[in-house]
Design a protein that fits this description.
Radius of gyration: 16 Å
Number of helices: 4
Number of domains: 1
Oligomer: single chain
Shape: elongated
Order of helices and strands: HHHH
Helix content: 55-70%
Length: 94
């Protein structure tokens, strides 16, 4: 029995994927080369991503999983206060 998450997504990827998706669609909205339909679609996706995943860094188990994953550590947190909070609470938990 293997305990690795190499073949499936784990909780530690939620915050990095969310940040990268938001970054992609933010850049897509800013790009002037896009036609109106693509820009409107990118803007709608960005808005819904923010609406759905804005609080994901506040979910303690996901934040700790991301922080403790050596691939990600603290580089994908968008909110510095939430990053500091999870770092402090994780030190206490360990």
């Amino acid at each position: 029995m293997e305990l690795s998450g190499a073949k499936f997504a784990t909780g530690s990827v939620v915050i990095p994927i969310t940040k990268m998706l938001l970054k992609f669609y933010t850049n897509a909205v800013r790009t002037s080369m896009l036609d109106t339909l693509k820009k409107d679609l990118s803007s709608a996706i960005q808005r819904h991503l923010l609406n759905r995943f804005d609080g994901v860094e506040g979910v303690r188990v996901l934040a700790q999983a991301t922080l403790l994953d050596p691939r990600y550590k603290s580089q994908f947190f968008r909110d510095e206060a939430k990053k500091k909070n999870v770092q402090d609470t994780t030190d206490v938990d360990l």
